[in-house]
Design goal:
Elements: E1 5-9, H1 14-22, E2 27-31, H2 45-49, E3 57-62, H3 67-74, E4 81-84, H4 90-93, E5 100-106, E6 123-128, E7 155-158, H5 167-172, E8 177-180, E9 185-187, E10 190-191, H6 193-204
Parallel strand pairs: 1-2, 1-8, 2-3, 3-4, 4-5, 5-6, 6-7, 7-8
Antiparallel strand pairs: 9-10
Length: 207
């Protein structure tokens, strides 16, 4: 099995950021979407700008943002990845001279065809579809839909409801990266570092 990369998303606490960097996490996701309970508070933005992420890559997460908002918030990081969860067209996602990932909400097999609309994306993130809900539902979709689908060599990120109980099943889908969020929280928006360490060990261990 190839190495599965890991991302912890929805971080709004500087101490957790520093701990995740010390764990040499591949990606840390910061949500810039005011309707999310994990939205990055403006009061920590200057602190984030001063952090040395080392080999860990920051990811800025958006839902139907304005161009100005993306430029402003992403400027606090050095060469971040942009992650779009709304109805953003490819031309918009590709307009910032930064690598981007596009989230696809999976309702059925036809949903996977949306990957063809984002050929310039560096990776595609699959999450659960829930009507009117963007940026993650905390629930897993039917992962068997991914079996045998031709992604046209696109890197795949698996997201949605991944926790210590189902992470082995998530690994079985052979994603390029596993995205963790609500499944590693002690309460909404509060990351549990011990739970993160436990699930990271499970992801790293090959069967």
């Amino acid at each position: 099995m190839n190495k599965i990369r890991t991302k912890v998303c929805g971080i709004s606490n500087i101490e957790i950021v520093q701990k995740l960097i010390s764990l040499e996490l591949d990606f840390i996701g910061f949500i810039f979407y005011e309707q999310s309970p994990r939205n990055v508070p403006s009061k920590i933005m200057k602190e984030l700008a001063e952090i040395d992420f080392g080999e860990t890559k920051p990811v800025c997460v958006y839902v139907n943002p304005s161009q100005d908002y993306v430029l402003k918030t992403s400027s606090y990081f050095k060469n971040p990845i942009l992650q779009f969860h709304g109805n953003e067209p490819e031309i918009f996602c590709n307009s910032f001279n930064l690598d981007y990932w596009k989230a696809i909400r999976v309702k059925n097999l036809k949903s996977l065809e949306e990957t063809l609309s984002y050929r310039s994306a560096k990776a595609i993130l699959f999450e659960n579809y829930k009507d009117g809900v963007y940026g993650g539902t905390g629930e897993a979709f039917n992962w068997s839909l991914l079996d045998g689908y031709d992604y046209h060599d696109k890197k795949i990120i698996l997201s949605g409801g991944i926790n210590i109980k189902n992470v082995d099943n998530a690994k079985d889908t052979s994603p390029w990266c596993i995205d963790l969020n609500s499944g590693v929280e002690s309460s909404v928006g509060v990351k549990d570092i011990n739970l993160i360490i436990e699930i990271l060990e499970k992801i790293k261990n090959k069967k």
